[in-house]
Amino acid sequence: MTHEKATYLLDLSVGELEDLVQELGQKSFRARQIWRWLYVHLAGQFEDMTNLSVALRQKLAQHARCSALQALQEEVSADGQTRKVLLGLADGERIETVLMLYDERATVCVSTQVGCAIGCPFCATGQGGFRRDLSTGEIVEQVLYFARWLRDHGPAGLDRVGNVVFMGMGEPLANYEATWKAIETMHDPQGLNLGARRFTVSTAGLVPGILRLAEEDLPVNLAISLHAATDELRDQLVPVNRRYPLEELLRAVRAYLARTNRRVTFEYALIAGINTAITEAHRLADRLRGLLCHVNLIPLNPVPDSRWQPPPDHVVREWQLFLQRAHIPVSVRLERGTEIAAACGQLRGHSKAPKGKQSD
Ligand code: SF4
């Protein structure tokens, strides 16, 4: 039987897992066996780990657990290409994870916090406030959830996770240690074996985190949620801009580029009547000219009954054309699964809170 204080194996590095098996009186090579069960065979329970003795499996079950997340609700878009799951955590909190199927890859969008402290006014998660950071294991298990689904039900050629984007609930760089350890765990060639370039960390613009990321050995991708090209507007849309205004943010991006030479993506959510005037596109181009970057225009995924809505299609096209002519690499990303409440934080907002917890 597991208990509340049981060690959550997905929180551990290989070295920490070795320490644990030694504490349980076992040889350290058992750690690699367990690691393979977790990340190659995607085992969710000790009974499945059949090359471990029954005695060891029982001992592990007394001291540890390999799962802490429970699927509470799953929604699938009409075309079947987007699946969103509401996952319950051991303490009753809830997070969301999304799987997006593309022609050649399956992308998992993970949460890194319960709620978010950044407080962007157009975001359902931001409106719910911050509850707590996720642990490494709670981040990794979101990916394992959909890795299992892809193995068992994935369409032909899409039987494993291709990319992991840190764009769900929360600000990954505000939970840096757990996020980075999760990346290292999922990168391990003797485990899930996801290459560094398959990870994209998305930030609202936490400068110290960007500078720290630039020093890491694994060359993961960086995306920055910009959404505005002046401090006046960005202070409102992404309130952390008051702490790290645009000049400082772009200075950090230049330092990141100088150190890594890896193209940075700027996300720009197009919000009707707020940041879509073509003069804003001019300002954006002026800010980004000469940077090794790419702009992702994202017509906002509307939150029901919200004053924040996407602009008409012709506005999106106008922006795209303008940036192309200004020689800023640009693409338009359509939000997936509007009908399944895919905007960040919406499913959590819709669902009933577990007993003893207050509803959002
Ligand atoms: S958009 Fe991202 S950074 Fe802003 S409140 Fe929502 S989760 Fe946080």
Can you put this structure into words, describing what you see?
- The structure is a single chain.
- The protein has 360 residues and is an alpha/beta fold.
- The protein folds into two domains: 7-65, Orthogonal Bundle (DNA polymerase, domain 1), CATH 1.10.150; 91-350, Aldolase class I (TIM Barrel, Alpha-Beta Barrel).
- The chain has helices spanning 14-23, 29-39, 54-63, 124-128, 136-153, 176-187, 207-214, 231-237, 246-260, 278-288, 313-325, 346-350, and strands spanning 7-8, 64-65, 70-76, 82-88, 94-101, 106-109, 113-115, 130-133, 163-166, 199-203, 221-225, 264-270, 293-299, 330-332.
- The chain has a ten-stranded mixed beta sheet with strand order 3-4-5-6-9-10-11-12-13-14, covered by helices on one side.
- A hairpin with a 4-residue loop joins β5 and β6 (106-109).
- α7 (207-214) packs parallel to α9 (246-260) and α10 (278-288) runs parallel beside α11 (313-325).
- The longest helix is centred in the middle third of the chain and has 18 residues, at 136-153.
- Residues 352-360 have low confidence and may be disordered.
- Iron/sulfur cluster binds at residues 116, 118-120, 123, 125-126, 169-171, 204, 344.
List the helices and strands and how they pair.
Layout: E1 7-8, H1 14-23, H2 29-39, H3 54-63, E2 64-65, E3 70-76, E4 82-88, E5 94-101, E6 106-109, E7 113-115, H4 124-128, E8 130-133, H5 136-153, E9 163-166, H6 176-187, E10 199-203, H7 207-214, E11 221-225, H8 231-237, H9 246-260, E12 264-270, H10 278-288, E13 293-299, H11 313-325, E14 330-332, H12 346-350
Parallel strand pairs: 1-2, 6-9, 9-10, 10-11, 11-12, 12-13, 13-14
Antiparallel strand pairs: 3-4, 4-5, 5-6, 7-8
